[in-house]
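haha ok so turns out i had the wrong file open the whole time. this is the CORRECT one, sorry everyone. sequence first:
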Amino acid sequence: MFTVTTLLMARFGPEVLAAHNVTLQAITAIFMIPLGISSATGVRVGQAAGAGEWQRARWAGLLGLAVSGVLMVGFAVLELAAPRLVLGVFLDTGNPANASVIAAATIFLGIAALFQTVDGAQVTANGLCEACRTHALLCLCLWWPTGCWDWEWVPGWLLGWNWAEGACGLA
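then structure:
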């Protein structure tokens, strides 16, 4: 999904492509945190479930979801409130030559802030499903809407080109 979006984003010019890549690097780095929490939560839930301690497994799962959710909301607030701080890890925000990239990346970070919170919860919930060897309808419902890019390109294509939203529609 991200590679296809990057290829499509190139059609909007080098500044937009650079902004997209910088944003993608930032959100990828941030996503590693709930991914790690997912693994740790899965281990804790799996150990408790394997021991037949279902109450402990439940609390371990809820704690993992809560920690992941709180952290991702915190990062979303950071991305919305201080995008230059986030982008400053990758770009010289004081260089006037980067102004157009920073402007576009700031918009992309705002869009990313919306989906990252859900994405963090989804990856943690997926770890819980794996730990309990549960691939029931609940896990499918958690994964399918956020984990499949096969349908996500359609609204991006419609918003990006057909409804004239440009790069923001594609993001």
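Residues 129 and 138 are 9 Å apart (CA to CA).
again sry for the mixup
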